[in-house]
Fold TLC domain-containing protein.
Amino acid sequence: MATTAGVIVVLSCRGNIIYDRHWLATYFVIWYGVPYMTYDIFAMYLSHYYRYHVKGHEDYKQHSLRTVNSFVRREFLLVLHHIALLTILLPITLVWSGRDAGALR
């Protein structure tokens, strides 16, 4: 889906591909990127939780802050990657794409 959207955007750009804008790029970030990153963090947590729940670990009989904390500690870089995308890179993409092309040159 990302590749198809990227090809459509690239082929639609008439001038400088860095500074041109396309509505699909904005909507892709908002309607696909944000929900996917949010879902992926949740799915990774559930995978982590049930992996230890099935093994019979005492702390994993029910969801708790302890299980969330354990997940964040064990998968720190993946969680950081997803949170950075959601809070820093996706908003930058939206702000950048909304600017006047002449102001960025």
About this structure: The chain is about 75% helix and 0% strand. Confidence is low (pLDDT under 50) at residues 100-105. Helices lie at 2-12, 23-54, 65-74, 76-98, 101-104. The two ends are 30 Å apart (CA to CA).
